[in-house]
């Protein structure tokens, strides 16, 4: 569970976010008590987003979805 008061969200994207996406991400993490964002660009995730807040990881990456499909086959 995401705890309020964690000050930094770590966000991983496949490419640099545009202004609209940055604002959506900021609103999302602020709503969960974060005051800052640390962006990492990792083309290996193919697409989507990974957000880490404290001990919680929200993985919406394409790589993760493909790995899940691979495991189910």
Describe the structure.
It is a single chain. The protein has a 4-stranded mixed β-sheet with strand order 2-1-3-4, covered by helices on one side. It has one domain (8-72). The chain is globular, with a radius of gyration of 13 Å. The protein has helices spanning 19-30, 62-72; strands at residues 8-13, 36-41, 49-53, 56-59. The chain is of the alpha+beta class and 73 residues long.
Shape: globular
N- to C-terminal separation? 30 Å
* Strand percent estimate: 25-35%
How does the helix and strand content classify structurally?
alpha+beta
Please give the largest β-sheet.
4 strands, mixed
Tell me roughly what share of residues is in helical segments: 25-40%
What would you report as the Rg, rounded to the nearest angstrom?
13 Å
Low-confidence stretches: none
Number of strands: 4
Main β-sheet, spatial strand arrangement = 2-1-3-4
Write down the domain tally. Answer: 1
What is the N-to-C succession of helices and strands?
EHEEEH
| Average pLDDT score | 91
Helical segment tally? 2
